[in-house]
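Dear Dr. H.,

I hope your travels went smoothly. While you were away I took the liberty of generating a structure for the chain from your last submission, since the lab meeting agenda had it listed for discussion. I wanted you to have the full record in hand beforehand rather than looking at slides cold. The sequence, exactly as received, is reproduced here:
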Amino acid sequence: MVRKPRIWLPNYFYHIVSRGNRKEPLFQDERDYRTFLYILQQVFETHPFELTSYCLMNNHYHLQLRSKESPISKIMALVNKRYATYFNSRYELTGHVFEKRYFDEPLNSPTNMLEVSRYIHLNPVKANLVYQPSEYPWSSYRYYGVSDSVRKPYINVLPLVEGYPGTLQEKKKQYCEYVTARQELIMASPLSK
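The corresponding predicted structure, in token form, is as follows:
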């Protein structure tokens, strides 16, 4: 069966999800998470892209990514291939690391951008891994905090906060309030207990 070619719209951000084969863990310890972020950095250096948000869960990851120069399929092929090679080598495995082709969906409005980013940043809260999204070390949420002393060159918070009034710090604060408003609903839900 022939796969449909992926559509690449260079001015759009995409929500990208990739899951471990058979929903098995992609990240077993801190070294795996750090290696994945290092691979993102390596790929960025040769194929520039922007991330407004990301979250690495143990058996899948989310990216909110835009690439104006290279097709997203090329970037994802490099990221997943390099990570699969590392993972199989480290754990002495063979075969597929990822379940199937990654999921991608273009985000065609500021509202979609905000909703997807909030969903990404609240993933660890919904999974009961942390109480606050700021407590989870493997997401981009910390870049929206007041102090973001360490920045990755591929992180760009502006597309998510540009619609809010005020200084950049005020905009980021309003974004965090937007995220935590939904967090309170999640925590109040009987399913989260």
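Two observations you may find useful: The radius of gyration is 17 Å. Residues 168-188 form the longest helix (21 residues).

With kind regards,
E. W.
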